[in-house]
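Narrative of activities, Objective 1.

The group set out to show that a structural description can be obtained from nothing but a protein's sequence at a throughput compatible with the screening campaign. Below is one input-output pair from the validation batch, recorded exactly as produced.
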Amino acid sequence: MRHRDSLLPSGIEAVFLRGLRPLVLRGAIALAFAALLLAWRAIPLSRLALLFGAYALVDGLISVAMVAPRPEHRHAWLLVVEGFAGIGIGLAALLQREVSMPVLVNLIGFWAVAIGTFQILLLMAAISVRQETLGALMLAMNGGTSMVLGLALLWWPEAVGRMLVLLLGCYELVSGVSTLSLALAAGRRPLLHRPS
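Output recorded for this entry:
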């Protein structure tokens, strides 16, 4: 039986460390998407649907790519499911023939809830083995922000939908910063600080 301290490094930590380049790429793309949205506040709905669909698709592919080097890790499935959720919702947005605000708001809402759920599950997996996670703050920030955005869009679609571009841009800014911070933490030292 393996020691309790070795459980998480064989899962989340190793996945992040071996998926460091995809993690950096994911954060950089999120920041680029945020900058585009915040600079182009009057973006037409059809263009927004295409941009979001492409972003969710690429983000999902990157999430899956992070697991590819070591797919056997015990928590890798969380990133895989998160990735496929993004791929599916991204394709749904791209394949919409006639884009409507309610449909796009719902798609973004479900996507944000899915992202937030799996990131919070990653965080719970980290703390379940009673170890201090260096990236816990970043995971909590990203997952919590995703859940707030997604639930707000799903519960108050008309009110929140009017500020969709601004809210999505701000969310992606937070997501990009937290993801790059997580990559920086993973690159400098292990994500977990083991108690002596």
